[in-house]
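We examine the record.

___
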Amino acid sequence: MHILPRKTKATAKKGIHLASFLGRLIWLSVLPLIVLSLWLAVDALRSRQAQDRRQAGIIAGNFATDLDQYLAARTGALQMLANSPLIDDEARWGELYREAQSFNGFFGSHVILAGVGQPMRMLFNTRRPFGRELPPLPVPKGRAAAPLAAATGKAVVGDLFTGPVSKTPLCSIAVPVVREGKARYVLLTILESSQLQQRIDQRLLPAGWAISLLDSQGHVIAQRNSPRHQEVRAVDRVEVPSTVAPWKVLVEIPAATYQPPLVKLAIMLALGLVASTLVGVLCGSLAARRVGRGVRSLVHWEPEATCGIVEIEEAHELLEHATAARRESEERQELFIRHAPAALAMFDAQMRYLHVSQRWLRDYGLEGDVVGRSHYEIFPEIPEHWRELHRRGLNGEVLRSEGDRFVRADGAAHWIKWEIRPWRKADGDIGGIVIFSEDITGLKQAQEEIQALNEDLEIRVEQRTAELKAANQELDAFAYAVSHDLRAPLRAMIGFSQALREDCAAQLSDEGLDYLLEISTAGYRMGELVDGLLVLSRSLRGTLERRPIDVSAVAERLVRELERAEPERQVQWQVEAGLEVSGDERMIEVVLTNLLSNAWKYSAGAEPARITVRSEKRDDKRFICVEDNGAGFDMRHSSRLFKPFQRLHRQDEFPGLGIGLATVQRIINRHGGAMEAEGEPGNGASFRFWLPN
């Protein structure tokens, strides 16, 4: 136990006694307590007002969010009706009317279809039977939804007005029906103010508060307040605008809500001040006496004496415990460093070992106790640049390396990963350095072996690539030779079968003539397959030369060629302007020729036939799409689309060889792009390709 020395007369200093100081402190504390209490009262009132205002903002914001969702749902549903193809055919407006009635059944709001002229004539209104004569659409004062939607081409929520049919307060949401960039019609849904009143009545409000929904002209759409709300003066108003409509939600807090808490707070404050002052003086005096005795016993401490204050006695124990804790901390530090799973050593400013881990001793082959010995004495072979690193660390630098080569005195080479970090004493001066190191010789050897394996792998890949290239060239040459050499035998087979049929028809039976016809037909079919094989082998020949290609111009030229070939067909074409890709011009023309020819062929049974060439963005990639409304295909068999000589339709339905799409995919793959296809039987097909820039 550490004993504090007694004060003598020589060491005693003049000053105020502790008891007098504590007494004055108690009385001086009363005045700040009163000031603090007053300030707390004012702050509590302000906090109450701020809390109420935040709550009002939350209530208004929640209702505004609910209102926005309520309006957005109906706007989205109206947009779906506006995009319906039924609206473009006046003969099918009856079907559109029934879909609008479904809208009414789901949302509880009637739907109006109106023209865009002046006045705006109602074409149908789900409040009246379809075909009934209807008055013109009314134009309310302020923000009228229908004219504004027709003018801007965007969905608009209007202000409050009186409906000409229902004669009740209404609001409307108008969505323009835009075709070719112009508004052709306007779809409206009517919201009765009673519907919004029901939603506002469902809101929970503190007593005496009021909430209102106002349009852009300040007219009340729906409102909820106490019976005497209009007789009191509101002290706080919180407005939150709608993000969908030009409306706002207003929450009002009347002054009367603050009066009862204010009176209660004043009474509690007065009582609290009197009680706290009396209790503070009395308790402070008693505590001051005891604290004074305790402090005096702490200054004049004797082991046998007790002051009766646990904290003061514990203070003496803490002094001794602190000394023991410091000693234990040093022991734990030594234990931690010694058994750390890394090569770690701590040095003083003269590079003498202070602490060292077992891993350090094992990695560097050290035996015995090295604490207190110089690092340079143990390793005299350390080169000068390492000594310079130690000096830099002792000067305050933090140094590290991911791998250095170190040669031992016995000639053994090691790779070391290390870090040097200075440590500081209590006064802030550098007391030495800590070195962390790791022998990564095995890792370096493994990296060198991996590098050698990678180099060998690259050589093998280059060899395999060259072999594959040669094999592809031989395969193309073989395909060309086969297609070329088979022509003569096929011509002979077809020619002799025709000659036999013409010259010896009388000597042959009907069955024999049929056999000759089958031989001729098979020969012609074989010739077409040989031609297809030749086209497939030629599709990727030559050097790929990339350049910008005007896809729109190429597609329009190919379309005109198809129309000249079959002028009797009526096909609706749509080619998007400005389509461009980067690729080989000859190969991309082959791609477009095959895709457009397929669209032309497979849309022959559609009335009317439609073929579209457009762009589409998917996953940040711009695709060129060729679409038709023809026969389509079953997606379950889509894996066969791009295989040579594989067809999804019978030959008697749509003639062909089955190499067009295979050729297209080979060209797209050579460009490093991607090819996709979608289809549905009887509803057309869509082929998309993407090429990198």
Summary: The chain has a mean pLDDT of 78. The chain has 15 helices and 22 strands. The CA atoms of residues 120 and 424 lie 86 Å apart. The longest strand covers residues 413-424.
